[in-house]
Hints:
Helix content is 68%, strand content 0%. The N and C termini lie far apart (36 Å). The chain is mainly alpha-helical. α1 packs antiparallel against α2, α1 packs antiparallel against α4 and α4 (92-119) runs antiparallel to α5 (123-156).
Amino acid sequence: MNILQQGLTNLKTVECIQDLVDLLFHGNAILDNVVYAMSTYLNVPKLYNFVHYSMSHVLPQLADDITDHGIQNNDVFHRGAIPEESKEFTDIIDCLQDMYNLFLDIRKQVKLCIKTAIANDDTDFEDFLRDFNYNKLSLYIKQSKTLLEGAKQYKLDNNLADFNDDFEDYIILPENSINN
């Protein structure tokens, strides 16, 4: 059994951050299910490729960034069990809405961890999480929102089927953040 190891960081902060790490890994499973739908029955291969490699794959990397920072403080986090995801989606808007909601949930957990770090005088993790929220997470929140809004506009124009070919017009991530 993996147990958390408290180093220099207060145990309450470590527990909150562990919940964040768990959410990031679970989020990867959620987005893997989204891209499964995109690549199979929704048949949007270009959008699938972008979401899979540039949005889904980033979540374990973000978890690693957090756990690597914890190691500097002798705090140990672990990868817990990942729940199964098997939701079926009606269209790409449904997929993109789930992706956007996931990134908002991650932000809520980051904010909770910042509050917990403040309450426990864990200024090192407070500073790290503020930077993480502003410089990393906010990019993916904006990207998921932009894709969702673009798809909704295409649906309003009765052109949702064309979004797969045109979605690149809605990519706002910096080029070095896009993985193929």
